[in-house]
Amino acid sequence: MSFRVKQLLDEALALSPSERADLAAELTASLDGETDVDAGAAWAAELERRARRALAGETSGEDWETVRARIEEALRRG
Fold it and tell me: pTM score, two decimals?
């Protein structure tokens, strides 16, 4: 890690948790290249569809602990 990167990291770690989250999101997004507007619209539509189903009681969903355990297991298996 270069001196400049270390300096920036030290400054970033001094920010509030909310500010660090915003910074991390912006840095991560900058690695993705151009934004695919169609993909963003598709995700928004999918989230809306899922929210409507959940609010209407059409799906019971899964608790986060169960989903997280399944993801972690899949990552361990490779």
Answer: 0.43
